Amino acid sequence: MASDDSGYPRKRARTRAQLRQAGIAAIAARGPEGLTVGEVAKLAGVAQGTFYNHFPSLTDLVEEIAEQLGTGVEIARDALDAIESDPAGRVAIGVLQLVDLADRDPDSAAAFVALAAARPEFRARVRAIIGRAIADGVAVGRFRVEAGPAAVNAVLGTCLQSMRSISLGETDGSIGSAVAPLVLRTLGVDDDEGARVVERAGEVLRRVEPAAADATG
After folding, report:
1. What is the DSSP track for 182-199?
2. SS (H, E, C) 86-101
3. Is 71 exposed, middle or buried (0-12, 13-18, 19+ CB in 10 A)?
4. 27-59 b/e with 16+ CB inside 10 Å = b?
């Protein structure tokens, strides 16, 4: 009688997800350069040989984690672009999303920060998203800065430091409502307008978060 192996793909997918989550926790603790197969396997609750059944090397695991975190940001951006035409609103929403990630999933946020510091291709991917929003805002006169690396650095640096602070327990996710106006002020949006943009950004984000979460699985 033939064995029923219909559950095998699900089991394999579950084990791979466990390894990926263990890798995120390890990156959060030590950065991508500090990973070992033994640590990841132990955190995932599997044998080291099982790791190699899913990933040829640690590099492959790190690349998959970077793809997962980067794709999550891009899906959220695409969902927001469809309903939010104001570049200032898009920037505010992006800031709120990253701060919220640090509050609800500290390991993923810490891994995001570590990958942004250690992997140029990941950092470039995130910078491109921010740079496009800033350039759009400058083009329509929404932002009073020069589009380019300096503006991107200011926005990304503020976001990453805020995420790191939350992940370390130095503050909590409530700072998002203060960080987003600060970022907008850096880009030349006055305080009163910035407060209105952030309030609307929060409303938009509450509407689209369930759809974005479904898309990222």
Report:
1. HHHHHTT--HHHHHHHHH
2. CHHHHHHHHHHHHHHH
3. middle
4. bbeebbeebebebbbebbebeeebbeebbeebe
Burial classification of residue 14, based on how many CB atoms lie within 10 Å of its CB (0-12 exposed, 13-18 middle, 19 or more buried): exposed
| pTM (two decimals) | 0.82
Q: Which long-range contacts (CB under 8 A, 24 or more apart) does 211-217 make?
A: 211/79, 212/72, 212/75, 212/76, 212/79, 215/75, 215/79, 216/68, 216/71, 216/72, 216/75
Residue range 62-216 in CATH 1.10.357.10 = yes
- Distance between CA atoms of 19 and 33, rounded to whole angstroms? 17
- Nearest Cα neighbor of 102 from 90, 116, 113, 91 is 113
Mean local confidence (pLDDT), 44-49: 94
Which residues neighbour 38 within 8 Å (Cβ) at sequence distance 6 or greater? 48
Q: How far apart are CA 29 and CA 23, in angstroms?
A: 10
Among 72-81, 112-121, 200-209, where is mean pLDDT lowest? 72-81
* Helix residue ranges, H only, the chain: 8-30, 37-44, 48-54, 58-81, 87-104, 106-118, 120-139, 149-167, 176-186, 191-216
Residue linked to tokens 């932002």: 143
Question: Is the model more confident about 128 or about 212?
Answer: 128
